[in-house]
Amino acid sequence: MYNDQRRMNSFTVNLGQRSYPIYFVLDDMDRLAELLKNRFPKSRVFLVTNEAVSAIYRSKIEPILSLHGLDFRFIAIPDGEDHKNLVTADRIFYELIQNYADRQSVIVGFGGGVIGDIAGYAAASYMRGVPFVQMPTSLLAMVDSSVGGKVAVNHALGKNLIGAFYQPKVVFIDQVFLRTLPRREMICGFAEILKYGLILDNDFFEWAVINQKNILSLDKNSVEFAIRRSCELKSQVVEKDEKENDLRRILNFGHTWGHAFENLGSYRILKHGEAVLFGMLAAAQLSWVTYRLNDKNFEQIESGLLPFLHEIMSNREIKDLMTSLKWKDIWVKMQSDKKAQQQNLRWIALNRIGEAVVEESIPQEKAEKSFAYLQKLIQQHAEA
Ligand SMILES: NC(=O)c1ccc[n+]([C@@H]2O[C@H](COP(=O)([O-])OP(=O)(O)OC[C@H]3O[C@@H](n4cnc5c(N)ncnc54)[C@H](O)[C@@H]3O)[C@@H](O)[C@H]2O)c1
Ligand SMILES: [Zn+2]
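Above: the input record for the complex with zinc ion. Below: its predicted structure, written as tokens.
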């Protein structure tokens, strides 16, 4: 069990020449300004953000950046996944060109995962690549999308299809931003935190389940530890498999299912983390019926995740969607998941809590039963 909430407030992701530090702070924009000034002394800084985040934080941050003598400019795009596309990326390019951004200019992605992904894509492409800094403001972005260097925009024919592997120069995580993040978004980030425990670290899973209230109510030390440990675990995987040839796939635990649910809700009804939470229950059950996971571990996962299933299901639209899903539609969506390769749908199974494996093909009949199990949970909730 983790009692050890170490005070170290940064660590390095080791990727040779592409290595970079991740900083963990609380309410310390001075530190960010100093970092940018020291690291990129002659650069212009372009902070790509969205209108919602900008409305809350721009007026607070601007004076601090000015005080430190930075030459900066905000680029605010509309909020939402719908805008993570090439049209919006082009708007960013216009702003960069019109404001004389050059190859020394730095792009800072200041927002949730949508902003990190599109700002990173812009940074990777503009003048064949300019320095990029991640400053995540959602829990999901802090524990997942800001680390690892995947950047992308969506295409009409599929999510995240246009992108690159492009590592940031610095990741700067200030948990103060979580104070304005809605609880629904907090739970999405928490689902990914649970995922890291399930695939890589049994003790961390147990710790996160026990400390969920502290994390979700923003107890400083609990939040810091939850974020830092998640970043460490993700970094360890990325260090071994930067470009997702093999091991990195385990980070998709529950995601084959989750993507199908998200898609069937037209990416509007379910948020990503919510869909993944349902997906992890189905994937855990599938690991159990295929004799990998023992009874005790499976029960532990159920009892850790079920309270969140109930909370997520209290949303009317989600309840309607989840109670109306049909296996054949899910199966079709799973097949078309972009991670499906050559007809073989890989899926991530758990041998035990803390150890995941990539499986070559998903056993259809067993997967159908796992869906029936999930449906039963959903039905039980609906009737309660
Ligand atoms: N690159 C990767 O490795 C990776 C990994 C996981 C997810 N992603 C991507 O991340 C995106 C999802 O990220 P997300 O869940 O952060 O969604 P998001 O960026 O849409 O943010 C969720 C909502 O919270 C708002 N918000 C963000 N920070 C806030 C704050 N501090 N206060 C108040 N509101 C705030 C946003 O404006 C938005 O409305 C998806 O596009 C997904 O594809 C990428
Ligand atoms: Zn995810």
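Notes for the reader.
The first strand starts at residue 10 and ends at 13.
The CA atoms of residues 37 and 380 lie 56 Å apart.
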